[in-house]
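REQUEST FORM: STRUCTURE PREDICTION
Request ID: SP-0412
Submitted by: Lab K.M.
Chain count: 1
Length (residues): 176
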Amino acid sequence: MASTKWAIDPTHSEIGFKVKHMMFTNVSGKFGTYDATIVTEDDQFENASIEFSADINSVDTNNADRDTHLKSADFFDADNNPKLAFKATSFSKIDEGNYELAGELSLRGVTKSVKFPAELSPLMKDPWGNTKIGLNVSGKINRKDWGLTWNSALETGGVLVSEEVRLDIELQLLKQ
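STATUS: Completed
RESULT:
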């Protein structure tokens, strides 16, 4: 079988996350600079080789002060850990269009095994004849597992920032 390389179409992709703020609303963020190496056997994604990284300094929550705080040693510690990295150990089909993506997530100098549900669209041709496929990865992690422990207690009880971080990754991949 021939190997196929895929590239992220950055104009149609987003690496996003959400965290509860003050226990009742979500704050959304994304990484603006990221890269991936994805190689499949022909067009089959089962057990694809997937490596992904994001530049911590590209974090954007639509608030410059919050972004600066996230880059600090209280959270991501971008000076010492400038990249978030993921390396897949498996990409397994559950049923038509639904998969499980397992791998090693490295963040803030800590690497942990993770598993996320993923959806894979059928192959499609865009109006210019390019072959594309959509990959959606979603899931939850506990930020404390990676040493992101900063928080502040609220007067009314609870904490300012939830431990749970929801991931929402939408990728449009272009066959090379």
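NOTES: The chain has a mean pLDDT of 93.
Reviewed by: T.R.
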